Structures are given as C-alpha cells and as structure tokens.
C-alpha cells in the first residue's frame, strides 16, 4: 500500500507522470457535455470540442494545450458546425463520425471499407498533432487508414506536408478562416500548382496575390525570409509519390507554424514564451509593391530601390511610354531589336526571383554552359537559369514566350539569363 501511495503522490505532484489519454477506441466516444479531450504524448496538443468567443456553434478541433493564447491548428467540421452543445465523436464501421443532437452525421472520415475483415480501429492524437485512424495492431505511419495531416485547415505544423500526394490523389493546401472568430473556409488559400517546376500561389478566391517562385534546392526564391532560422530544417520533395514542402524543428521546445490569415497573408509564426504571444517571423507578401503578383508587366522586373519600381530588362523599352511615365508598369516592355536566332546573346540578371514557370521546360541532366548552348539553338527560348543553385548550379529551366512576375533582391534570388539581340548587348 505504501508503494501505491508513493506512486499516486508522484503522479499528482510531478507533471511528467501525468496520465494523458490520446486514443479513442471503437467502444468509446467524446461528447461536448462530458468535456473530455484527447491529449497528445508530450502534452503539446489537445483534441476536443470548442466554440469561439462570439459563437454558439460547436466545432471539433485541435489546439496547443499549454499556451496561454488558445491557438487552433485543425478543425474537422469547419463548414458544418454543430448548432448546439450536443455532439458526439465516435468510431463506427471503421470511420470516425461526428454526430449532432439528432444523431445525424455532420462530419466523417468517409472511408470506403476495402475488405470485410473485422478489425479493431482506434483514433489517436500523435505527439506532432496528427490525428490518425489506424488498425489497433498496426502502429506504422504507412498503415494509417486516415490522418488529419492530409486535410489541413489554415495551419501547417512541423512534419505536415503541403502539396500533392500522387498515390492518394490528394492536394493538401491551406485555406484561411472566414474571420478570427469564424473557422469556416475563408477566401484566402495557399496551393501548389503542378508544373514542370512546381510553385505555390497565394490566392484570394480565384485571384492570384503572390507567387512563391520555384524551389532552387535551398528555398523558394520568392520567400527568402523562410531560410533565416537555425531552428528549422526545410525540405521539398519531388518524386513519383508526390510533390510537397515540409519543415521540422531542430529544437523541439520551440513552436512554429505556417498559416494563411483571413487578412490575406501567408506567414510564419513562432511562439514567444516570455511574452506569451505569437511572433510574426515573416509575412508574405512582404512589401505592397514588388511582392504582389505581376506588379510589373512582361519583360520588366520590380525593384523596391528604384522609382518607379518597374524596370525594363536590358534591350527592352516600355510598351506604352505614356503609361510608364505615369508609373503604371502593368503593360511591361517590348524588345528594342528583334531576335535573329543566330548571333543573339544573353544579359545576366543577378539576384532575381525567376519568372513564372507556366511556359517553362526543365532538364536536370546538365550544367550552365550546356543550358546556354541549348537556349541559343532554340529560336523560341527567351531565357534560362539553373534549377538547383547548390554546388555551383545544376539543371536548366528554359522559358519560351513572355517573362512574367519578376523582381530582384538585394542579396537573395539567383542568376537569370535573358536572350537579347546582339545589337542590344
């Protein structure tokens, strides 16, 4: 008895021993009235029912457990809230179901059963904030039947992937809350566009607001701020299984997340434990001019240090001088001298955000000298750059047609080689 008493005292007075429940079995359920929650190992995340300050509607969500400021990272039924304080989360027929006061399903994992074997299924909140459904005797991440990380709301956590899972046919993207008090799907989204050189776009409904630029082996060219931390490691994978961006923390005691706000920003937030608040590490678009999508028209680039901010590439003139003089650069620039397709050369532009890659082709098999030769021999080629800037640069991206949505940086970006007539070199 004395040993048992010591153990009970240790649990009560030593938080490291506190008992958390992170698993829901098929014999169990969570209800709003019971006030029960699931708590992840490590005590970082909590899953349960919540309502925002100004709302009588209820949601099932995940939030940081120990932070003084309640921060939600995932919402299951964001567009189908419970209308009152009666709601139940349970496992039924190998699916997670969220039922309302009339026992009607308002949200479900919606899995079709692949076979009729009766297996015990459990739902589990993992240490990284991923809420998963799995076979009770299969703990392998590859064997998850369903996971919340595949269905993000407005937040990307460490170890989550943003982009395509080609095997599952999923595009994982972020969508803002409608407002700070309303978790329903807002107008702002952040999505990967699948091209030969994939890029992320920040959208306001169907209108593009910002482009990440392609991944250059180290970073997305259009978001250089994201590399300025030693506490994070970044990765962009492109293979037969998928194309996705992910990050992880090299110091697990620090919290960081990427989010799209209802105000129209894509931003990285880090938790400041001393001030007890989230600190905006960077926010994109960074500046109202050069970071906005297509501020300057074709064959022109944006530079915050010039006035006006739009500049023609060497060998190009404003397409409409009158509008250009009125500081409207949307019409862009046109060639001074037509290309001859023999004897043309290149102007090297340093520290550039590469042009939009809609009309680009990629060849990863050779280096810069070969890129130059290939672009010169193709009459339709208008510019080229390295795909990967590491180790002196490898692979080529070639543009045909207009060069759009470019800017330059004081210290970031990379070299872009634009083809111009010999007379304009």
What does this entry look like structurally?
One of its GO terms (molecular function) is kinase activity. It comes from Brassica oleracea. This is S-locus receptor kinase. Involved in sporophytic self-incompatibility system (the inability of flowering plants to achieve self-fertilization). Keywords: Disulfide bond, Glycoprotein, Kinase, Receptor, Self-incompatibility, Signal, Transferase. The protein is mainly β. The protein folds into three domains: 131 residues, Agglutinin, subunit A (Orthogonal Prism); 127 residues, no CATH class; 121 residues, no CATH class. Helices cover 6% and strands 40% of the residues. The chain is built from three helices and 34 strands. The strands form eight sheets. The chain has an eight-stranded mixed beta sheet, covered by helices on one side. The longest helix has 12 residues. The radius of gyration is 26 Å and the shape is elongated. 36% of the residues are buried. About 4% of the residues have low confidence.
Beta strands, count = 34
Oligomer: single chain
Helical run tally: 3
Looking at the structure, the CATH topology of the largest domain is: Agglutinin, subunit A
* Major sheet strand order: 26-25-33-29-34-31-32-30
Protein structure class = mainly beta
Supply the CATH superfamily name of the largest domain. Answer: Bulb-type lectin domain
The average pLDDT is 91
Calculate Rg over CA atoms.
Answer: 26 Å
């Amino acid at each position: 008895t004395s040993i048992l008493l010591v153990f009970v005292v240790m649990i009560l007075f030593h938080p490291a021993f506190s008992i958390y429940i992170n698993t829901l079995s098929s014999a169990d359920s969570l209800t709003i009235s019971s006030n029960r929650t699931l708590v992840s190992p490590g005590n970082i995340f909590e899953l349960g029912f919540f309502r925002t300050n100004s709302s009588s509607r209820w949601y099932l969500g995940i939030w940081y457990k120990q932070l003084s400021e309640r921060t939600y990272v995932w919402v299951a039924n964001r567009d189908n809230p419970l209308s009152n304080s009666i709601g139940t989360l349970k496992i039924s027929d190998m699916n997670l179901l969220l039922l309302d006061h009339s026992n009607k399903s308002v949200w479900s994992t919606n899995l079709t059963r692949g076979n009729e074997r009766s297996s015990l299924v459990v739902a589990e909140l993992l240490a990284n904030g991923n809420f998963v459904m799995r076979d009770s005797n299969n703990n392998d991440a590859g064997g998850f039947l369903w996971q919340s990380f595949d269905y993000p709301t407005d937040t990307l956590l460490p170890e989550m992937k943003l982009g395509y899972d080609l095997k599952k046919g999923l595009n994982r993207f972020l969508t803002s809350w409608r407002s700070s008090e309303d978790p329903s799907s807002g107008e702002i989204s952040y999505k990967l566009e699948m091209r030969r050189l994939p890029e992320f776009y920040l959208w306001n409904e169907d209108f593009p607001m910002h482009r990440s630029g392609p991944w250059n082996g180290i970073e997305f060219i259009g978001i250089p701020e994201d590399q300025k931390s030693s506490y994070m490691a970044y990765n962009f994978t492109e293979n037969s299984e998928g194309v996705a961006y992910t990050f992880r923390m090299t110091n697990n005691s620090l919290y960081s997340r990427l989010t799209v706000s209802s105000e129209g920003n894509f931003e990285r937030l880090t938790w400041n434990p001393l001030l007890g608040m989230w600190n905006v590490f960077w926010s994109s678009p960074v500046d109202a001019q050069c970071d906005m999508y297509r501020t300057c028209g074709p064959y022109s680039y944006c530079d915050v240090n010039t006035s006006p901010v739009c500049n023609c590439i060497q060998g190009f003139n404003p397409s409409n001088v009158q509008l250009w003089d009125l500081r409207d650069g949307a019409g862009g620039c046109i060639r001074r001298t037509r290309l001859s397709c023999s004897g043309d050369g290149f102007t090297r532009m340093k520290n550039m955000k590469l042009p939009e890659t809609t009309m680009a082709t990629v060849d990863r098999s050779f280096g810069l000298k070969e890129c130059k030769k290939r672009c010169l021999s193709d009459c339709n080629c208008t510019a080229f750059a390295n795909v990967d800037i590491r180790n002196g640069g490898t692979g080529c991206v070639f543009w045909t047609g207009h060069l759009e949505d470019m800017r330059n940086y004081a210290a970031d970006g990379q070299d872009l080689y634009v083809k111009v007539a010999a007379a304009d070199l």
